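Inverse folding, one chain.
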């Protein structure tokens, strides 16, 4: 999954590769989140605070993040399927905070168990039903706070 400013069209292959090993990585304009499975729906929540709270004790993991939005619109994108939604921010600028997640491993374990079902004529139907009825929700939460205005772009730089 990817979260980015509405005007930040270019992806970042290095940040995407880093997310594969660190779960979450970004370059300031793009934030990549790496699930362990590709077919079960996940939840992404973006919450704004005056000062972001620490991740909850139940979180499987967390990382500090910073994302800049010159348009004050963040897009949530499914890399293989396209945009899933967007969120308007109160103002443009840089937002700092953290991303934390839960049920990432439990969802991956469930996903793998469904693939272990014997293949027959009903296998695809079984998978669809199993994935639509996952007993846990893989969830990623971005807790952000406005930090500062964006740096002005110098059009005279080469």
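Residues assigned per position:
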């Amino acid at each position: 999954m990817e979260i980015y400013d509405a005007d930040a069209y270019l992806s970042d292959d290095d940040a995407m590769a880093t997310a594969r090993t660190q779960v979450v990585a970004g370059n300031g304009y793009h934030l990549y989140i790496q699930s362990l499975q590709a077919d079960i729906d996940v939840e992404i929540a973006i919450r704004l605070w005056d000062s972001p709270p620490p991740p909850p004790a139940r979180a499987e993991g967390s990382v500090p993040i910073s994302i800049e939005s010159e348009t004050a619109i963040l897009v949530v994108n499914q890399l293989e399927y396209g945009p899933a939604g967007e969120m308007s921010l109160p103002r443009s600028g840089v937002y700092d905070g953290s991303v934390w997640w839960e049920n990432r491993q439990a969802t991956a374990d469930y996903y793998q168990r469904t693939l272990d079902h014997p293949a027959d004529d009903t296998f695809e139907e079984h998978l669809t039903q199993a994935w639509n009825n996952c007993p846990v929700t893989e969830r990623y939460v971005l807790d952000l706070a406005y930090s500062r205005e964006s740096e002005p772009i110098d059009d005279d730089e080469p």
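Residues 104-115 form the longest helix (12 residues). Strands lie at 2-5, 24-26, 30-33, 42-49, 61-69, 73-78, 82-88, 93-102, 138-148.
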